Amino acid sequence: MKNVIEDVACASCCCVCDEIQVTTDGQQITEVQTPCLQGQAWFDRSSQSEHLEPSVKGVAVSHLEAIQRAAELIQQAQSPLIYGMYQSATDSQRAAISLADQIGATIDTGAASATRALQQVGEASCTLGEVRSRADLIIYWGADAFRGTECHRNSLNRRAADLPRKIVTISGEETDFGDNVDQSISLEPGNELELIWSLRALLKDIDLEENQSAGLSTSDLQSLVSLIRQSQYIVIFFGPEFKRGPFAHRNIEALSLLVREIQAERRCHTLNVPGVGETRGAETVLAWQTGYAASVNFAAGYPRYSPREYSANQLLEQTETDLCILVGAQPLSGLSELALERLSETPLILTGPVAFEQFKTEVFLPTGVSGIHFPGVVYRLDGTPIPLRGYLPTGLPSEADVLSEIRALLKRT
Ligand code: SF4
């Protein structure tokens, strides 16, 4: 029977668009009105996941056999690692943390650099609704792909018509989305800290020499400073380009200092635009469950945090883990090349709505999709929790069910 469902949320990316119309025949999605192809692909996953089967070493087995093998592997492991949780709902993230706690594992997410910085200096943030209604200057720093998304542009265009707004982009690459950008700054990658320091100096009326301005002309910098001084409500979206490299957390810390200084006279907020695979929400759940937002180790029987020692990349690169439990749809994102190389030699348990071919998994436990088959909650990039609905039946369990079943079996043995 045809069923039209309004205001469905898409959990494929950090925008979590929640005004999508989905038509189903009661068993499958027959039509989706999404603003983008990535969203379409996420809704298509509902039919693809139905064909997935639990397996051990690539051989199809029953769900119970796969759970039992996963429990055996965990019991044999000395130093297990749980990683991923991108696109996972908060109940899956909570279940992953409980499992890590029970088995003394390390758990990490793909949002380590932002989390590290924000733990040091805090975050002055706002919601997308406030950006739409109040921001009179928006700066996109390394977040051009996000600026170009249709859902973000539509959201901004719903603002009050009489709110004047200036747009500035700072990027290493020139992109033209056909919108009116008031200032476009081309910045060589790696010069982010210098630019932030130059802006802080100019905002304090300290003169700069040409060679002190991050390779930019001082007139470019002065015009950005005057835009900042003319504005009352500034929002800086910083994206994947801004967070590249091993010292990304330093860039974010420096940006927070700049924002703090601008706030002395006007409102200024930052919004972190996650890259592909960078979780938004898992760090929140980790923080409320353990007190730490990433890279948490339970080997001592209580949570310990060390952003380097317990980061997934470090553990894999140094071959310090003997079992990796990957959770979610894109569990490899955020791993370095060396970590991926080491991962190919590490026994893997994968649970999620997508199988992957690159690595041989010891155990694969397929799941349905939160937001299509199961209700749940995911976090939008501005930190707003968005409820997800489950509106299609499935024979598959959820990620949270799988992780809880493994926990229950381990408790009994
Ligand atoms: S922009 Fe993101 S949340 Fe919105 S429909 Fe596309 S993939 Fe889904």
Distance between the termini: 46 Å
* Largest pleated sheet: 9 strands, mixed
Oligomer: single chain
Please list the strands of the largest sheet in the order they lie side by side.
5-4-17-16-15-6-7-13-14
Radius of gyration: 23 Å
State the total count of DSSP E strands: 19
Helical residue percent band: 25-40%
Can you count the helices? Answer: 14
- The CATH topology of the largest domain is Rossmann fold
Indicate the overall shape. globular
Question: Which percent band covers the strand fraction?
Answer: 15-25%
CATH architecture of the largest domain: 3-Layer(aba) Sandwich
CATH domain class of the largest domain: Alpha Beta
Low-confidence stretches: none
Q: How many distinct folded domains? A: 2
Structural class, from helix and strand content? Answer: alpha/beta
Mean pLDDT over all positions: 88
Ligands present:
iron/sulfur cluster
What do you see in this structure?
The structure is a single chain. This protein is globular. The protein has two domains: 53-111 and 278-370 and 394-412, Rossmann fold, CATH 3.40.50.740; 115-272, Dimethylsulfoxide Reductase, domain 2, CATH 3.40.228. With 413 residues, it is of the alpha/beta class. The protein has helices at residues 37-49, 63-76, 90-103, 112-121, 128-134, 144-147, 150-157, 192-203, 218-230, 248-262, 282-290, 312-317, 337-343, 399-412, and strands at 3-8, 20-24, 29-33, 55-56, 59-60, 80-84, 106-108, 137-141, 166-171, 183-186, 233-238, 267-272, 296-297, 304-305, 323-327, 348-352, 363-366, 376-379, 385-388. The chain is built from 14 helices and 19 strands. The strands form four sheets. The protein has a nine-stranded mixed sheet with strand order 5-4-17-16-15-6-7-13-14, with helices on one face. A five-stranded parallel sheet has the order 10-9-8-11-12, with helices on one face. Helices cover 35% and strands 20% of the residues. Helix 2 crosses helix 14 (399-412) and helix 3 crosses helix 11. Strand 6, helix 3 and strand 7 form a beta-alpha-beta unit. The longest helix has 15 residues, at 248-262. Bound molecules: iron/sulfur cluster. Iron/sulfur cluster binds at residues 10, 12-13, 15-17, 34-36, 38-39, 42, 149, 151.
